[in-house]
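User: structure tokens for this one?
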Amino acid sequence: MRVLVMAKEPVPGRVKTRLCPPLDPAGAAEVAAAALHDTLDAVLASGAEECVVALDGTPGPWLPRRAHVVAQRGGSFAERLENAWAHMRGPTLQIGMDTPQLTAAGVDEALRLAEHGPAALGPAEDGGWWALAVREPRRGMFAGVPMSDASTGERQRRRLRALGLEPEPLPTLRDVDRWDDALAVAALAPQGRFAATVARLAGAAVTRAARA
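Assistant:
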């Protein structure tokens, strides 16, 4: 059983730009790095046999040594997903770096569904999806599915059905896209690096506003 994590190098100006304002690009990159850290912590604490990170960017010390890194390839995000899945065999769970509230138990449950059923899909509150698990990867799983759209989750579910992969539902989670998302998710997982980073940057933002 494997976990595939789609991730982006936390470079200021390239990640989490919708957190600006109230954050600056450097702060947004810190939030992204913290989200990825907590996500990988959950994966590595789970029963997954391997953690594969499909990375957009250059690996750095913020990646754990136990993670196997492959480069993202392709123009559109759907192409990048398809190419990343080409590395996977057997029961696999794919997640991103936008749900740092995910726990090791949550990873294990998704992997269990991937092992015993054809597929599982985790919807996101914004209409997208945060997790996809399948027992055996298929080519074309993302064909015709619009990305970053309010209909993405439902269209992905239909695409899986069309391939004969009736997906079991995973819990609905909130993605971290904007600052209010970051605050809400940090409150759900107050013990992680993500929550600590958000709290520190929120305090700094309040101080800047007071001085303005």
